[in-house]
Amino acid sequence: MRPFRTTLPALLAAFALVGCDPGCDAADDLAPDTLTMELNDAPWTAANPTWQVSATGVQINTSPVAGWRLSMVGQETPNGTDVPTLIEDGDLPIYVKLGSSQDGGWGLLYPEEGDTFSTEYGHGGFLKFSRLRGRELYGCFAFDANDQRDEADTRKGLFRLSEVGLE
Question: Could you tell me if residue 29 is inside a domain?
Answer without folding.
Answer: yes
